[in-house]
Specification:
- It contains four helices and 13 strands.
- The protein has helices at about 40-50, 145, 180-190, 195, and strands spanning about 10-15, 20, 60-70, 75-85, 90-100, 100-115, 150-155, 165-170, 205-210, 210-215, 225-235, 240-245, 250-264.
- Helix 1 packs antiparallel against helix 3 (about 180-190).
- The protein is mainly beta.
- The protein has a single domain, classed as Porin (Beta Barrel).
- The protein is about 10% helix and about 40% strand.
- Strands 1, 2, 3, 4, 5, 6, 7, 8, 9, 10, 11, 12 and 13 form a 13-stranded antiparallel β-sheet that branches.
Length: about 260
């Protein structure tokens, strides 16, 4: 398999009900032989949504807590999910991804059956400029996953370290012929928060995240997801990336990543 191929038509191809093969488009920043965290996170969310109930059952996935237990090679993966908290209004699902005979990722996904619309309560942060008003940004990232995403920078500097804000939209689906759900789209790009807002030299440091936590206020509207990300590092080899999420309708939610910072 050519793991440098970023021209794939989807991130995964299905082998059977629970086994999938990652395409070259999943290749991440540290080595193209290992997947970026976004695509396998989205695959876990998909598995959780499928076992929770039919798409027209009114359940919407709004929360995902994903743990990265080890690297995920570009190649075959097995994904299983089971309902751990059944209910009429709230459903909890645990999902697991196995690669090379070991568990590489685990996720807990919460789905809510939305009720009667109410008047919105609260104060939204200022909305970013519309992606339609921004030009495409060529980020200085030379790895397959980065090429599979459309980026439109709205704040910060793509060439220098520090906080950054960017509209994101995947160019290819998770699986060919499927439209990804809102939470699938969000986790697929939210794992890039620590990348767009990196504060360290990529050539000298690695800052691998051990988790990805996403909380959504409501269902996602549109294909674009905006990341407004800030990364902070400690003096003891740890870090935290905090990202505010927006979509076409405004404030969408938040995500966070715990980082392990090490010299390369």
């Amino acid at each position: 398999m050519d793991t440098n191929d970023s021209s794939a038509r989807a991130y995964f191809t299905p082998d059977d009900g629970t086994r999938f093969t990652a395409t070259g488009a999943t290749g991440g920043p540290w080595t193209p032989d290992l997947q970026h965290g976004g695509p396998p996170s989205a695959l876990l969310v998909r598995a959780a949504e499928q076992v929770a109930g039919p798409e027209d059952d009114g359940l919407v996935a709004l929360r995902a807590a994903i743990d990265f237990l080890g690297p995920v090679p570009v190649g075959p993966v097995d994904v299983q999910a089971r309902v751990t908290r059944p209910g009429r209004t709230i459903v909890g699902v645990d999902a697991e991804l196995v690669a090379g005979g070991r568990t590489a990722m685990r996720a807990r996904v919460w789905l809510l059956r939305l009720g009667t619309p109410t008047t919105a309560i609260g104060h939204d942060a200022p909305c970013p400029p519309s992606p339609d008003d921004m030009e495409a940004t060529h980020l200085p990232w030379d790895f397959p996953y980065a090429s599979s995403i459309e980026w439109r920078l709205t704040g910060g500097d793509a060439l220098h370290p520090g906080p950054a804000a960017v509209w994101t939209r995947q160019r290819i689906p998770l699986l060919e012929g499927e439209v990804p759900s809102g939470l699938q789209r969000v986790v697929l790009v939210a794992d890039s928060g620590s990348g767009v807002s990196s504060v360290l030299d990529w050539d000298r440091w690695s800052f691998v995240n051990i988790d990805l936590d996403v909380h959504l206020l409501r269902p996602v509207v549109g294909d674009w997801v905006h990341l407004d990300a800030v990364t902070r590092t400690s003096a003891v080899g740890s870090g935290l990336c905090s990202t505010t999420l927006h979509d076409a309708d405004g404030h969408l939610g938040v995500s966070a990543q715990t980082l392990v910072v090490q010299p390369r």
